[in-house]
Every structure is written in structure tokens, then in C-alpha cells.
Design a protein that fits this description.
Elements lengths: L3 E6 L4 H38 L2 H26 L15 H29 L6 H24 L4 H28 L6 H28 L9 H9 L4 E13 L2 E10 L5 H16 L1 E10 L4 E2 L2 E3 L5 E6 L4 E3 L1
Parallel strand pairs: 3-4
Antiparallel strand pairs: 1-7, 2-3, 4-5, 4-6, 7-8
Helix pairs in contact: 1-2, 1-4, 2-3, 2-5, 2-6, 3-6, 4-5, 5-6
């Protein structure tokens, strides 16, 4: 006997429009922070060369990585306003992930260069102008405080939180530069400059590894950080009429956009119209999953239908397991 599957697709633009307005607001905040951070990083490079301070140069390198992080966030916020197309049905959300991957590679190169220079300077320590390092390092600390304050007052999304994490790490880098300047100014050994530079390298390395893990998770279609698949399944099966959830897949489209696909066993297919909205609310509000494809199945009848939540008008088609789809 030929088995028939009944599929119904429903989509919703509301979440997307809402997300676009947020991206636009966060984009302005990130652009301001980007310009401010990059400008001072250039000042630190100039001062680091003039003072012959690796601590300042390494802190400038850290600030440049922050600038890249801010640039990625601003660019991805701009791309988030671009509508989906036939070629890119999910839009260009993954551009954020690719930009982050570039950011990680750049950060590793910065770490390698600073560590190499630090080792050379520990073997042959040059004279360092402690006053310049102290003054510029203090200014850098103030710049980081201002940027962090601006980001905390802006629209809070994953891009902004990620950029804020980098800036807070750079605060520690600025503290290291100030410490090196103060130690040298008060007669301490100049070797503290490359030693504290290695400390800044460690800060950058921690941020780079964390970002690389997050990027890899998205690119490998892993379950999003902070989302437990078992908890999602349990939450859905607690709804009246839902017998079980299986073939559950959860992945990330970008750092702040997650998707889910699953089969849902129902006690009675007539319950589906009431059950679907409950599942959507749980997925969206408890787990941050706005795009879901759910296929209800009646095990007793051996029939099912799929409902996709996320995009536009409703279409309906029937599919024969032994033949092509018939659109109605």
C-alpha cells in the first residue's frame, strides 16, 4: 500500500523584521566603537615605536584585534538588513561567521609576532621610555573604559556582547602596559616590558581560542552554545498530546540565529493546530530558536505532516513515497 505524507509549510516575517531593527541599532554602536578603538590603536603604535616599548605595541595589537571584532560585528549587522534571496534562502548570516574566522587567524598571527619579539627582547633588552609607556598606556585604559561603556549602553545582542568581551580583555592589556611603564619609570628592570607583553599575548590567545571554538561549532552545524538538546526534547514532550520527539536537529545559522528540525509523535493528529503554537513559543522564548521545522506524526496511522516556521506565505503539497511531489 502506498503511504502518503501530508506537508504544510507556514512562515513568519515578524521575527526577521524585528531582528533587522536591532542589527541596525547595534551597527551604529559598533561603528562608533570601531572608529574610536582603531584611532587610538594607531596612536599606540606610533608611541610604542617612539618609546621602543613592546608592551605598547602588543596592547596596540590587541586593540587592532578588537577593531577587527568590532568591524565584523558592524559588517554582519549591515548584512542582517539584507533580505533573503533565491540564491541565499537564509540571507547572508554566515558572513558573520566567516568574518570571525578571519579574525581568529589574524589574532593568532598577532600572538606569534608579539611572542617572537618578546623573546628576542628578553634575550637583549633595549632601553624603554617608561614615561611614554605610562602616559599612553593610561590613555589606552581610559579609551577602553569609554568603549566598554558605549557598548554596554547600546543594543545588546551577541555581536555586541562578543565585542564587549574583547574590549574587557583589552582593559587588562592596557593595565599591563601601565604596569610596565610604572615599573620602568620608578627604576624597575626594562625586561618587565617584554614579560608583560607575553601576558597580553596570553589574553589574546584565550580570546582567540574561545572565538575559534565558537566559529567551529557553527561551521560544523553543532548544537548552539547554551542550548541542551535533551532539555529541548523534554520541554516539547511536556506539552499535552505530545508522545515523543525524535530525529531532533539543532544548529546555528549565525551567532544569534538558531534553527531546529524534528519529528513530533502525537496521540491524535487533530491536536496539531493547538500544539504547534505552544511548541513555537517554547522554542522561541526558552531556547532562542526562531526558525523551526516540525513534522507531526501519528504512529497509529503511519501518516505525518511537516510545518516549517520562519518565512512567508503558506503553501501545501502532497508527497507519495514512491513518486514525485504533487503541489496543490
Amino acid at each position: 500500500m502506498t503511504e502518503h505524507h501530508h506537508h504544510a509549510h507556514s512562515h513568519n516575517h515578524t521575527d526577521g523584521a524585528h531582528g533587522h531593527s536591532h542589527s541596525h541599532g547595534s551597527g551604529k554602536t559598533l561603528v562608533f566603537a570601531l572608529i574610536f578603538t582603531t584611532a587610538f590603536a594607531l596612536v599606540e603604535v606610533f608611541a610604542g615605536v617612539m618609546a621602543n616599548s613592546l608592551a605598547l605595541l602588543s596592547d596596540a595589537g590587541h586593540m587592532f584585534t578588537d577593531s577587527l571584532s568590532l568591524a565584523v560585528g558592524a559588517f554582519s549587522a549591515w548584512l542582517a538588513n539584507k533580505p533573503a534571496s533565491r540564491q541565499h534562502s537564509f540571507g547572508l548570516q554566515r558572513a558573520e561567521v566567516l568574518g570571525a574566522l578571519f579574525n581568529v587567524i589574524f589574532m593568532f598571527l598577532v600572538i606569534a609576532y608579539i611572542a617572537y619579539e618578546a623573546v628576542l627582547r628578553m634575550l637583549d633588552t633595549p632601553e624603554v621610555n617608561g614615561v611614554t609607556v605610562l602616559v599612553v598606556g593610561t590613555l589606552g585604559l581610559l579609551v577602553n573604559i569609554i568603549v566598554a561603556w558605549v557598548l554596554m549602553r547600546g543594543e545588546q545582542n551577541m555581536n555586541v556582547r562578543g565585542a564587549l568581551l574583547h574590549v574587557m580583555g583589552d582593559l587588562l592589556g592596557s593595565v599591563a602596559a601601565v604596569a610596565a611603564g610604572a615599573i620602568i619609570y620608578y627604576g624597575g628592570p626594562a625586561i618587565m616590558d617584554p614579560i608583560l607583553s607575553l601576558f597580553v599575548c596570553l589574553l589574546i590567545l584565550v580570546s582567540a581560542v574561545r572565538l575559534l571554538r565558537a566559529v567551529t561549532r557553527v561551521l560544523m552545524e553543532g548544537v548552539p552554545q547554551g542550548v541542551d538538546a535533551a532539555q529541548v526534547s523534554d520541554a516539547l514532550t511536556q506539552i499535552d498530546g505530545v508522545r515523543a520527539v525524535h530525529d531532533l536537529h539543532i544548529w546555528s545559522l549565525s551567532s544569534n540565529s538558531h534553527a531546529l528540525a524534528a519529528h513530533v509523535d502525537l496521540d491524535n493528529m487533530s491536536l496539531w493546530q493547538a500544539t504547534l503554537p505552544q511548541m513555537q513559543i517554547i522554542l522561541r522564548e526558552r531556547f532562542g530558536i526562531a526558525h523551526s521545522t516540525l513534522q507531526p506524526e501519528d504512529s497509529a496511522m503511519g501518516q505525518g505532516c511537516a510545518v516549517e516556521v520562519g518565512c512567508g506565505a503558506r503553501s501545501r503539497h502532497y508527497e507519495d513515497a514512491s513518486g514525485p511531489k504533487q503541489h496543490v
